[in-house]
Amino acid sequence: LSAVCEQWLTIGQRRVPLIAGPGALEQLPAALAGAGFEGRLFVVADSTAADLHAESLRSLSESGVVLRVSGAEADKTLDQVSRVWDWLVAQGAERRDAVVAFGGGVVCDLVGFAAASYLRGIGLVNAPTTLLAQVDASVGGKTGINHPRGKNLIGAFYQPLAVVADTRLLGSLPRRPFAAGLAEIAKIGMVLDANLFGTLERSASGLVPEAAEALTPLVARAIELKAAVVERDEREQGERMLLNYGHTVGHALEAAAGYGHLLHGEAVAVGMEAAACIASAMRLLDQASADRQRALLGALSLPTRYADVPIELVRSRLTQDKKRAGQRQRWILAERVGAAQIRDDVPADVVEDALRWVTADARLQ
Ligand SMILES: NC(=O)c1ccc[n+]([C@@H]2O[C@H](COP(=O)([O-])OP(=O)(O)OC[C@H]3O[C@@H](n4cnc5c(N)ncnc54)[C@H](O)[C@@H]3O)[C@@H](O)[C@H]2O)c1
Ligand SMILES: [Zn+2]
Questions:
Q1: If you ran DSSP here, which 8-state letter would residue 26 be given?
Q2: SS3 of residue 149 by DSSP
Q3: What number is the average pLDDT over the span 334-358?
Q4: Neighbouring-strand partners of residue 68
Q5: Contacts of 271 (CB under 8 A, 6+ apart)
Q6: Atom of ligand 1 nearest to the CA of 139
Q7: Confidence band for 363, pLDDT divided at 50, 70 and 90
């Protein structure tokens, strides 16, 4: 059940190995050799992850040359990308070589962007160390940094040579970020795969950092589902938008609460509740399925409401998003567990009711 699992993502002519499971990092050299890679590896590591997993890091870099960076969201900046560029120049990294991103989504995004731009594109290996990065940020080729005016405003689509999700690394995650990663798995289950959703329901109480290896089948399935969607719609013109389920209200809440207060995955969980509320009002989703989603998120220790933010702020963030997209607000709405659709015809009062519901103080109900 917890063996290392290897799958592939095919983008154009390229086949990207996706390796997941306990000890997956040990399989990386063989996977890279199989993909015809003969260069050197330059590891850029989240300093927290590097301290916690020095042994795994050593297996990645025999030479021990590692650039340590902060994995904080506030450091997902051009300055940090510049540091990576400077280091690669100093090391004499060539186009046949590859940079390894060892860290959470912040490090994957920022190192991916540095790799996409250094020498017009040097190899990239994603070695995600958080659950969220293993099931989401490391797969699909979105890289980038934040701009003072907004998250992820600068970036590029750039596919890695390989993704290696070693589930042993997850044991050191604190509970909140661990649960936040589970939110993205629940999201994928809700929009794409009723079986994955059911597996989560049955195993919820055992999904804790101390038993991280038990996650392997879930991580592998989430990666497989995301890879299949990315193969069909790399640039997010259609089907890939389904993966933004829970993110419309999620992003607005995250920004309104101030980054760092509500973890991304927590905001997505509340956003999923808002989406279910909208889908029920539109008579798309039956009450039993909405209840199942709420129960699962609760069992995973995730919030489904968040009252510590003024509703006006959330509303204005939603409007800003819509303006930026230059079109009607798009909503991903579940029609049942395991299936969803993209809608742009949600009435304003239905949205307003959902916002009121998820930002109301549950203690006062
Ligand atoms: N590119 C994409 O498709 C995509 C998708 C989803 C999210 N993202 C991005 O990912 C970022 C969030 O990623 P994240 O949730 O992984 O957060 P993160 O990268 O900020 O990591 C969270 C914290 O965990 C620490 N950490 C990392 N590995 C650890 C380990 N094994 N044990 C203990 N602590 C560890 C880090 O130092 C950091 O403090 C956001 O910037 C988001 O925009 C990108
Ligand atoms: Zn997300």
A1: G
A2: coil
A3: 97
A4: 45
A5: 245, 246, 247, 248, 249, 250, 251, 253
A6: 3
A7: low
In the block, tokens 């798309």 appear at 284
Supply the residues annotated as catalytic: 120, 142, 184, 226, 236, 240, 244, 247, 251, 264
Tell me the ligand closest to 247's alpha carbon.
Answer: 2
Residue 61 has a pLDDT of 83
Could you read off the pLDDT of 279-304 as tens digits, one per residue?
A: 999 999 999 999 999 999 999 999 99
Instruction: Tell me the CB-side half-sphere exposure of residue 183, using CA atoms within 13 A.
Output: 30
Q: Contact, 164 vs 57, CB < 8 A?
A: no
The C-alpha angle with vertex 236 and arms to 270 and 302, in degrees rounded to 5, equals 15
Which amino acids bring their CB within 6 angstroms of ligand 1? 46, 48-49, 52, 71, 73, 76, 103-107, 109, 129-130, 132-133, 136-137, 140, 142, 152, 169, 172-173, 177, 264
CB 297 within 8 A of CB 276: no
pTM of the model: 0.96
Over pLDDT 70: what percentage of the chain?
97
Residues above pLDDT 90, as percent of the chain: 87
**pLDDT tens, residue by residue, 136-176:** 999 999 999 999 888 899 999 999 999 999 999 999 999 99
Q: Is 258 helix (H, G, I), strand (E, B) or coil?
A: coil
Nearest bound ligand to the CA of residue 166: 1
Query: 309 — phi, psi (to 5°)?
Result: -150, 135
Ligand 2 centroid from CA 34, angstroms:
31
320, containing H or E segment: helix 311-325
Best probe residue, ligand 1, of 44, 46, 75 (max atoms within 8 Å of C-beta):
46
Cα distance between residue 127 and residue 162, in whole Å: 9
Helix, strand, coil shares of the chain as percentages rounded to 5? Answer: 55, 20, 25
Which ligand has its closest atom nearest to the C-alpha of 132?
1
pLDDT for position 365: 55
CA 245 to ligand 2 centroid distance, Å: 9
Q: In whole angstroms, give the CA distance from residue 305 to residue 272.
A: 10
